[in-house]
Write a structure and sequence with these properties.
alpha+beta, 7% strand, rod-shaped, 262 residues, hypothetical protein PF0899 fold, single chain, 2 domains, 4-stranded mixed beta sheet, 6 helices
């Protein structure tokens, strides 16, 4: 049978007709606004003291070295105990062979048994010695790498933490100037050249610098357009010294790298 409804058999009644509005249901839809997420404030960055960080790293590395020594000693003790047990067993076997050979009058068998036992003992001693030498070499290598790793960590910390100190503490340059002048040979005249940015700070502390020079010596602070922030040159009667902050840090890292290669 065909599924097509022919128009001749369909009747339409206008009384019950209904108009469908496709937008009517949309009026009842509630528009839900997305909740605004609370924006968390970033945690404040806490700058740790260089000495504290270095001390923690040093303690950690020293703990690792101590643990390595304990592990090495435990392995050596275990190897020695194993060797003692094997030697004891070998002696026991040798005694058994000796007893058996004497009992049966097999002197030749006793001699062969003793030779075999002696060879086995010698092989065991050689194996234990090789293992001990290998462990000792491994221990020495780790100690050497430990020292190099410590120097590397310290250099990295200096690069990062000195950057923080230099940015956060304006008087770092003044401290370096004081220390440099106190280490220099006595001079009658000191000319300190600093950047425009550092001039006011250094000039305001000029009176403190006289504590590090001889009586009657003169100190002159000069603002130099050729120097940038944290750069400084000190001229005396005999020499010119670069006591810039970055120069001091580079010298420190160079010394540490030299130590790591020794």
């Amino acid at each position: 049978m065909s599924n097509v409804i022919k128009s001749g058999f369909v009747r339409f009644d206008d009384k019950d007709k209904k108009v469908i509005n496709p937008f009517e249901d949309l009026k009842r839809v509630e528009i839900v606004q997305p909740e605004q997420e609370e924006i968390e404030e970033p945690a404040p960055v806490v700058t740790r003291d260089l000495a504290t960080v270095l001390k923690e790293k040093e303690n950690m590395l020293r703990d690792q070295e101590a643990n390595l020594k304990v592990k090495y000693q435990n392995i050596i003790d275990a190897a020695e105990n194993k060797a003692d047990d094997i030697l004891s067993e070998a002696r026991k076997i040798a005694n058994e062979v000796k007893t058996e050979a004497i009992s049966y009058g097999q002197k030749e068998g006793y001699r062969v048994g003793m030779e075999n036992a002696a060879q086995e003992i010698a092989a065991i001693k050689e194996e234990v010695q090789k293992e001990r030498d290998s462990l000792e070499q491994e221990y020495n290598d780790k100690i050497e790498n430990f020292e190099k790793d410590f120097i590397g960590i310290f250099i990295t910390l200096c690069e990062k933490l000195f950057g923080i100190i230099i940015d956060d503490k304006q008087e770092v340059l003044l401290h370096i100037i004081n220390r440099t002048i106190s280490d220099l040979e006595r001079s009658n005249n000191y000319i300190i050249r600093v950047s425009r940015e550092d001039y006011e700070l250094v000039n305001n502390k000029k009176g403190l610098l006289y504590d590090y020079v001889a009586d009657g010596a003169s100190i002159e602070i000069i603002e130099s357009d050729n120097l940038t922030h944290n750069k400084c040159l000190i001229e005396t009667d005999n020499s010119v010294i670069d006591c810039s902050v970055d120069t001091q840090v580079k010298n420190l890292m160079a010394d540490l790298e030299m130590l790591s290669k020794l």
